[in-house]
Amino acid sequence: MKLHLLPTILTAVFGSASAAKDSQYDPIQNFPALVEWFTSHGGQIDPRITLGYEPSTNPKVRIRGMIATAHIEPETVLIHTPASLMISDFDRNHCEVIQRVVEELELGEESKWDIYFKFDGSSLVSASGLDDGEEEEQGHGQRHTRTPTQWKTEDQPGSRAILELQGLPPTGDTHRHINWYTSACNDSKELTPIQLKAFIMFLTRAADRGMVPMYDLMNHHNGLINTRLQIDEEGGMSVIAATAIEENEPIYNTYSRGGGESTVDVFNTYGFVEDYPQLWRWSDVDMIVKAEDPNHAFGRYVGPDENSGVDAEGRGFEPNSHHYEILVISPTLAALHPTKALVHILGNGRRTIDEWKVEINNHHATLRKSHVNAMHDSALAVLSELPTTIKEDENTILPNERRLFEKVKKKGRVDQSKADTIQAIEYRLAFKKALKLAVDVARSGQFYLDSEEL
Asked: Which of 118, 142, 119, 124 is nearest to 56 (CA)?
C-alpha cells in the first residue's frame, strides 16, 4: 500500500539540533556567562534554574536541558526575555528574521548576540570526558543527529538516510524547509555556510516572534510540560511555571501544542522522535479520496443519543485530522482517530495514565467500528509491505548500525552519514510500533457498533 504524504507547515518553535564536531564550547560550563549577558541586557531568569542533565535511567544517555535546582511554586515567572533581546521582525517575516541572524553571525564577537549564538545546538559537540560507549544527547535531539532537511538528498552520494525511511512519512518531504528558505528568501541561489547556519538555527530554535534567548533552551515534552508563555504589552515574552516544579525536575516547553503538529512533523523539523504522548499520522489512496470531502471525518463519531455532534461531556466531535491518526500514550495505550477535544491537552497540560485510560475509553465508545476497521486494514497493509519488520529493525539492523558507528567513532571520526542512517532507522521503528499498536487497539478495543457492523 503506497503511503501519501500529508501537508506540513514550517514550524517556528525551538528544537535542539545536532552536534558539530568543530566546536568545543561547553554550554553547561558556560551557562553562568550566558545568564550574566542575559540579565545585563534586561532579561530575567529565576536563580533556581540552571542548565544541566535531565535525570535518566540509562547512564549512557544524557539529555541536556533546563533543570530546577530547588522547589518552584506555580505561577512563578521563570524567564522574561524583553523584546530588545529578541531577533525578530515587526511583520514576523521569516526571511527578514533569518537575514538578521545572518548579519549578526557575520559580525562575530562584535555582535550583541555572540554569546547567545555560541549556545546554538547545531554547532555544539558532546562535552569532553565521556567514557568509551557513553552517549550524550544535545537537548531532545540525539548525538550527532541533524534535522532531515540537512540530510543528503536522494541524488547525492551517501543519501542512505532517506531510503531508510522505507517510504514512511516524511519521505518526499524531508527537504521542504530548506527548499522553502532557498526559494522564498534566497532567489533559489545556493546557500552560503552562514546562511545555512542561520536557517537551521531559526528552524530549530525560533518562536513565532523570532529568536528568543533563554526561552529556547527548554526541551520539548507534551506529557510532562510544566510551563506556559505570556506576552507583555512591550512585546516581551515570559515563561511561567504552570505547575509546581520540584528540585532536579526538567523545565519543559512544547514544540507542538494542541495536536496541530504530529510526531512526524516534529521529527521532520527537529530530527528526534518525541517522548510519549506521540501523535502519528498517515494516509493512503482510499483516505486521500475520502479527505476531499471536508465532512467525511465527522462521521466517525456518534454521540450518546446516537447522533453526531457532541460527546457525553458536551464536547464537539471535531476530528483532529482528516487522515489516519493514532494518539500513543504508552507502548500499550492509544486512542484511534482522536478528536481535537481529546488532544487539546497536548502542550497545554498533563494527564495521568489512569486519566488517559478513562478519556480514551469514553472516546472509543463513540468511535464507529467501521472506521476503526478501515484504520486497522490500512495500518496492517503498510506494515506488511515494508521491507523489514519491527523485530528485524530492533534486534538486528539497528544494533549493527550502532556498532559500526561506534567502531568508527573510537578511531576519532564521526560518520555523519551513518548517524543520519541510524536516526532514520530509529524513527521508522517508532512509526512501525505505532502502526502495530493501531492494529492491536483496533482488535481489542470497545467501539461503537454502527450499522455496517451489525
From this structure: 142
- Distance, in Å, from the CA atom of 26 to the CA atom of 129, rounded to the nearest integer, reads 11
Please state the φ and ψ torsions of residue 151, each to the nearest 5 degrees: -65, 160
**Strand bridging mode 333-336 / 219-220:** unpaired
**How many CA atoms does the CB half-sphere of 98 hold within 13 Å?**
24
Q: Is-cis flag, bond preceding 59, omega within 30?
A: no
What is the distance between the alpha carbons of residues 255 and 346, in angstroms, rounded to a whole number? 10
112-122 pLDDT tens trace = 999 999 987 65
- Predicted confidence (pLDDT) per residue in 16-56, tens digit: 333 333 345 788 999 999 999 999 999 999 999 999 999 88
127-136, 158-167, 403-412: which range is least confident on average?
127-136
Q: What are phi and psi of 346, to 5 degrees?
A: -60, 120
DSSP state letter for 397? I
259: left (phi over 0), alpha (psi -120 to 50) or beta: left
DSSP 87: B
**CA 88 to CA 101: how far, in whole Å?**
9
> Is there a contact between 325 and 337 (Cβ–Cβ < 8 Å)?
yes
Per residue in 422-434, pLDDT (tens digit) is: 999 999 999 999 9
